[in-house]
Specification:
The chain contains twelve helices and ten strands. By secondary structure, it is of the alpha/beta class. It has two domains: 203 residues, 2-Layer Sandwich (Nucleotidyltransferase, domain 5), CATH 3.30.420.10; 91 residues, Rossmann fold (3-Layer(aba) Sandwich). It starts with a strand and ends with a helix.
C-alpha cells in the first residue's frame, strides 16, 4: 500500500470555484519513506487574485506568476493526476482536503472532464477530534507545535510534505497506526461523489435562502399603499405585525400574494421585534424564542386567526 499526501493552490476562488494553478504531492510507502515528490504547475487560464478582501493581504505563491502561465492547462495533466489519486493501492491524505478536492472537481467540470473519483482522509479534521480542540488548527500551527521541519508554504509539494510530517508526528505522539486512525475517525474520510453532492446541496440551500430573504424583504415594502377605508378592520388598522420563521417559511407566497390587502387594511409588517405589536405564530404554543424578552408589550396571535381576519371583507 502507498500513501499520497497532496495539496492544491489556486489563482483565485471566486464564487467558491478554485482555478487551480498547482497540485503538489508526496508519495510514500507504509513506513513514510518518500518515493516521489512533485509539484505540477498549471496554467489556471484565469486572473491571479491572491488578496484577502478583509485584510488587504494575500498569500504569496512559491513561484513567479509567469511560471504558471508558461505551464499547460489542466487537461494536459488530467490523466497523470487521475492515475495518482485513483490508484487502488494508494490511500490519499490532505489537510483541509475537502477544499482541495472541491477545486479538483470544479476544474474537471470546468474542462468537461469526468470527475476524478477517489476517497481521501482529512488530517485537519482528525487532529481536531484527536486533541479535542474547539477549532480547527492551521498547518503552520501544527508544524510549529509538533516541531516539524518547515518548508515553503503555498508551494504545493512542500505543503504536502509538511502535511505528511505532521500526520506522522500525530501518529507517533499518540502511538497510533494508520489503520487505527482510519478506523477510529471515519468522519474524516470522504469521497469525490459525496463531496460534490454536498457542495451542490449547500449551493441549492444558499440560493433558496437568498430567494427567501429577497421575498421577505419584498413583503416588508409598503409600495406606497395607503389604507382603504372600505377595507377597515380593527384587527389590522394601525397594527404592526411580525411573522415567526415557521410562518414565513410555509406561508410566504400566500402573504406576498395578499400583501396589498394587508396594507390596504392599514397594517404594517416588520422584521424588527422592538417596533412590533403583534407576533403571528404558526401555532399558539409554538415560540421559537421568547419574543417578550425583546419586547414585553407584544401580543401573540395564531396565523390561522390572522388568515381568517384577512379573508373578511371590510366594514
Amino acid at each position: 500500500m502507498f500513501y499520497v499526501f497532496f495539496d492544491v493552490e489556486c489563482a483565485n476562488c471566486l464564487n467558491g470555484e478554485g482555478k487551480m494553478c498547482s497540485l503538489g504531492y508526496v508519495k510514500t510507502d507504509e513506513e513514510f519513506h518518500v518515493l516521489k515528490k512533485k509539484d505540477i504547475l498549471i496554467d489556471p487560464n484565469a486572473p491571479f487574485l491572491l488578496g484577502n478582501a478583509k485584510t488587504g493581504q494575500g498569500i504569496h505563491l512559491a513561484y513567479p506568476l509567469f511560471r504558471f502561465k508558461w505551464a499547460h492547462t489542466f487537461p494536459s495533466y488530467y490523466q497523470e493526476i487521475k492515475r495518482l489519486l485513483e490508484d487502488k493501492d494508494t490511500i490519499c491524505f490532505g489537510f483541509a482536503v475537502n477544499q482541495d478536492v472541491s477545486y479538483i472537481s470544479y476544474t474537471c467540470q470546468r474542462y468537461h472532464l469526468p470527475l476524478i473519483d477517489f476517497k481521501f482522509f482529512d488530517i485537519q479534521s482528525m487532529e481536531k477530534q484527536l486533541n479535542q480542540r474547539k477549532n480547527l488548527s492551521g498547518l503552520d500551527h501544527l508544524v510549529e507545535e509538533y516541531q516539524v521541519q518547515s518548508f515553503t508554504y503555498h508551494r504545493s509539494d512542500d505543503d504536502a510534505l509538511m502535511t505528511m510530517e505532521v500526520f506522522k508526528a500525530l501518529l507517533d505522539s499518540n502511538q497510533l497506526t494508520v489503520e487505527q486512525v482510519l478506523k477510529k475517525y471515519p468522519q474524516s474520510i470522504n469521497d469525490t461523489m459525496t463531496l460534490v453532492e454536498t457542495i451542490a446541496r449547500r449551493k441549492r440551500q444558499k440560493q433558496a435562502h437568498a430567494t427567501h430573504a429577497k421575498k421577505v424583504s419584498e413583503l416588508m415594502k409598503n409600495d406606497g399603499v395607503k389604507p382603504n377605508s372600505n377595507l377597515y378592520n380593527p384587527f389590522f388598522y394601525e397594527k404592526t405585525f411580525f411573522f415567526d420563521n415557521i410562518v414565513l417559511s410555509e406561508e410566504l407566497d400566500y402573504l406576498l400574494h395578499h400583501k396589498k390587502e394587508i396594507y390596504f387594511r392599514g397594517a404594517k409588517i416588520t422584521k424588527n421585534l422592538k417596533e412590533t405589536q403583534i407576533v403571528v405564530l404558526s401555532q399558539k404554543d409554538v415560540k421559537q424564542l421568547d419574543y417578550k424578552k425583546i419586547n414585553p408589550d407584544i401580543e401573540y396571535v395564531e396565523y390561522s386567526t390572522f388568515k381568517k381576519e384577512l379573508s373578511k371583507g371590510g366594514r
